[in-house]
Amino acid sequence: MPITRVCTPRLRLLTSVRYCPISRGRPYHSYEHESDPPPFNATEEAVLAAALRQVPEHGFTDASLSLGAREAGYLDITVNLFPRGSFDLVNYHLVTRRLALKKALDAQAAKDDGGSFKGQGVGTKVKFLTLERLMANRPIIHRWQEALAIMAQPSCISTSIAELARLSDEIWILAGDAGVDSSWYTKRASLSVIYSSTGENLAHCTAPKPEAMLMSGLLELFMTQDQSTDFADTQKFLDRRLEDVRIVGSGISNLKGYLDFTAHSFINVLRSKGVRI
Amino acid sequence: MSVTMLRRRASRPLVQELLAPGISWPQRSCRRASSTADAQPDAAARSPKAPLRREDRDFLDSALRVNQAGELAATLIYKAQTPLLIRAHPHLSSLMRHMYDQEAGHFSTFNALLAKHRVRPSALYPVWQLAATFLGWSTAMMGREAAMACTEAVETEIGEHYNGQVRQLLEMTREMEARGEGVSEEIRHLMDTVRRIRDEELEHLDHAVENDAKKANGHEILTSVIRGGCKTAIWISERV
Lengths: 277, 240
Fold this sequence. Notes:
The complex is a heterodimer of chains A (about 280) and B (about 240). Chain A has about 280 residues and is an all-alpha fold. Chain A contains 13 helices and no strands. Chain B is built from 8 helices and no strands. Chain B is mostly helical and about 240 residues long. Chains A and B meet through loops of A and helix 3, helix 4 and helix 5 of B.
């Protein structure tokens, strides 16, 4: 009798839980209408948050999930809510850390009351947010390679990449970037590439899962190998990559400006000579 | 009797908008303003506002994107036409300046809206830049009448497109009110913006016709080709 009394409300709750896959991109952000319902409902939130606390010890595994369910006061079978198993746990981490960026930015802006941070350019804020997001992996950094491997599984790759795109979109928007021409795409693509940066660091890493490195997060992977205090090497690595992109980006826009100017001058010279074009 | 008169008068703008969105603009602005002022406390009482439905958000998303792409193209068409036209016909200089300035204003309006509402621009942005510049330049090369015929064709298509959007926005707000949700100021503002811009585009159409757009060589073929191109471009940029 006591058992049923304890279990019935929980079980009833479980039947009302609806598993919803990650929504598509979030078009048209409204300021007056209520925003979307949170990505995870109360049950999912409770179980996944508790499971995430188990990750440092048990890794991104089904074991963490069931421990989390138990800790949150649900039956072990609650794990069936998450058909993708450990990937749902990884995804929870990705989504919540992305959504936490706004608070981090607000906190930073509130911290320096002189308003110097608010006045900073978009570039500084992008760097701050990217670093902030990387540092959010800190508590579970020794388990992150498992997560990368899970994300690179064929059934999860598309979701992982979409989440990476949402992350870089979020960072640019929070940084206050208002560009809506073709640079909208290049900015997001280059930040995604930085975040999952390729290049020379591959050589320094001895990762167990090469496909994981290719697909999701070399910068993150770099961080998993980083032995320096306070991830100083990772910070330097990020600085170098952002600087590279800034140089390439300004080079491209200079070249575009130059070509545009030259073409216009050329046409105007021809027109002044009486050529009817 | 006076009550029924009043009621009929009050119900008129909506019906008119749905049947013929193009008719009787001059009175609308003041009527509109008073109706939003009436609706204000009502909407505030119902806040917080219900989240937008998925299909409404998708519609707003693609509507803002296609409008930005369209205004980008319009500014570039005028920009490419202007030097060629005013060299041959200096008296057109002020008209071209006026039309270009209005289009540039529309373009920055939509740029701001895109950035504010986190809408991505069209992925074919550079393609529209090239196509619009080419269209403006080539029609200006064909002469004043052809350039005006291009304006006529483009603005006709754009006017129809904006009318369709106003219609859909009205439909959306009506459904929101039917569900008992408040209509947000941001949607009302968007509707007013689209209406204002549509009126200005149709004014350009009038200017083009006044300047002998119909006398262009092969007017029929030219305008139908350009209108077909516009339709295709709208269809594409609503999607990508």
